[in-house]
Here is the input.
Amino acid sequence: MTTSTRGADKVPAVLVLEDGRIFRGRAYGAVGATFGEAVFSTGMTGYQETLTDPSYHRQVVVMTAPHVGNTGVNDEDPESKRIWVAGYVVRDPARTPSNWRSRRSLDDELRAQGVVGISGIDTRALTRHLRERGAMRVGIFSGNALPDEGTMLAEVRQAPEMEGADLAAEVATKEAYVVPAIGEKKFTVAAVDLGIKGMTPHRMAERGIEVHVLPATATVEDVYAVNPDGVFFSNGPGDPATADHAVSVMRGVLERKTPLFGICFGNQILGRALGFGTYKLKYGHRGINQPVQDRTTGKVEVTAHNHGFAVDAPLDKVSDTPYGRAEVSHVCLNDNVVEGLQLLDQPAFSVQYHPEAAAGPHDAAYLFDRFTSLMNTVLMEGQRA
Here is the structure.
């Protein structure tokens, strides 16, 4: 529940974690109450892309960078049509934004969209707590009639957990739409929207790809109705263990040996389709400064992440799957978490991070070129046959 109130920065606010830890500060954005999973993002910039990333649905994002809102909010950088975070936590919000593209303050944007936040708390202490204890449920409460601590804690503990949450259909498009190729059209791609970011089809369009974005409920028949040269599975929120429909659709694509590319949630879907399990990370990877090694080249990339689940696949061997041999292609250098998969006997691969990275970095942009090369190779082979 939220109420939009001017002067929110003078209104008291309380953040309550499900283990009983409490932080007191001031309201930021809308005034009211909100609940979600407390996670932290290590990005120093790109807060507008973070807020509008559908993968953050039902999550309360803690910014580790102390100063947030310095560049305000513009109309060009959103990754979707709305803010998706359940709540927002910052230490020192900007008093006055300063940027030539700014149209309004971040505080005003949060308030306009009914997003409850809190400022003026020790986000360093909160981040250390989440690193030690793990991501957990949280509530933010603000206003003059705050409940007592016992009531707030009880409400937090009644909120749904992220494990077992099936959320992709809640954030995905309800109707299919097309992002046309920029310049000469070279390929057609069917993109299954599990929470897709706006920059992703744009990056493909830049490479001459006409992208047909399909709802999360799309069937194999829907995918092939657009006569695709390749199929893409997007990022998205929730527990991949619940995504049985997406796994079934991906298996249909693998059976046809159509070039396939998945990112983030799409990587987890590929893992499940190949027979691997998934699991919840203690506190996840979120930010734009995560080191990943491409094991096919040895190159280390600085990458953008937003995931709380990961694929459980062996790092030290090639695995046999129903669709041929598979291996881990990318790994996080911080903790050895699987960050990419590839099939060796057919054109399919995925990564756990975000190569579109609108706020940067751009080390992983080559992955869209790799997808294009796969489609081109299959097309040329088909013409020779």
